[in-house]
Amino acid sequence: MRTVGGRLLCLVLGVSLGLTVFAGGALDAATAMVKDTAERMLAALEAKRPEIDADPRLIYELVEEIVAPAFDFEAITRGAVGRAWRRATPAQRRELVNQFRRLLIRTYARALLNYSGQRIRYLRPQPGPRPGRLRVRTRVAEAGGAPIPIDYSLHQKNGGWRVYDVKVDGVSLISNYRSSFRTEIRKGGIDGLIQRLRERNGEVAHG
């Protein structure tokens, strides 16, 4: 099950180079949410570094507390599963979201342990394909390389903005997982995908 990789973690890893104020309250609020998530995550990581070095599992709690609320995991899972979501039972849908959420959080947390000071520059956000959606664009500085474009697609949910997809250097998180999910569903159906996600969570937890 292939993933986008560590670059996707830049949402929570970078230190911003400054947030430009753009016209439009919605654009401002969504960009500020992304920026605030990054800054709070780094501040917590710095404050708790000795404890995390002693017990790396503590990073999971920080990511769960600070980063997870910024994401709409049901929308991400639904998009990654694709058309097969329609035939999943309510119980299967809940378990898909639960297992995929766990995998993403654990993947983020493990990459965060290797944070090496990448910096984020926020560009002018753009309206999304329909009302209530927009895109927060960033560029992440990598030592010795060209800046990496990281774009966050957000929508309004429960009175706030939530990330429902991320594009890293043009590669969509949802599209990337959809390919591997489709393969697992073809082999073993929805239950086969759930089992594979459980296995991946076990591998990440003990890797």
Describe the structure.
The protein is of the alpha+beta class. The protein has a single domain (6-206), classed as Roll (Nuclear Transport Factor 2, Chain: A). 53% of the residues lie in helices and 18% in strands. It has helices spanning 10-13, 25-47, 49-54, 58-67, 73-81, 90-112, 173-206; strands at 15-16, 119-122, 126-127, 133-141, 148-157, 160-168, 171-172. Strands 1, 2, 3, 4, 5, 6 and 7 form a seven-stranded mixed beta sheet that branches. A hairpin with a 5-residue loop joins β3 (126-127) and β4 (133-141). α5 (73-81) packs across α6 (90-112). It is globular, with a radius of gyration of 17 Å. The two termini are 15 Å apart.
Concise structural overview:
The two termini are 15 Å apart.
**Measured on Cα atoms, how large is the radius of gyration?**
17 Å
Mean pLDDT: 85
Sequence of secondary-structure elements: HEHHHHHEEEEEEH
CATH topology: Nuclear Transport Factor 2, Chain: A
The count of strands amounts to 7
Topology record:
Elements: H1 10-13, E1 15-16, H2 25-47, H3 49-54, H4 58-67, H5 73-81, H6 90-112, E2 119-122, E3 126-127, E4 133-141, E5 148-157, E6 160-168, E7 171-172, H7 173-206
Parallel strand pairs: 1-2
Antiparallel strand pairs: 2-4, 3-4, 4-5, 5-6, 6-7
What key attributes describe this structure?
207 residues, alpha+beta, Nuclear Transport Factor 2, Chain: A
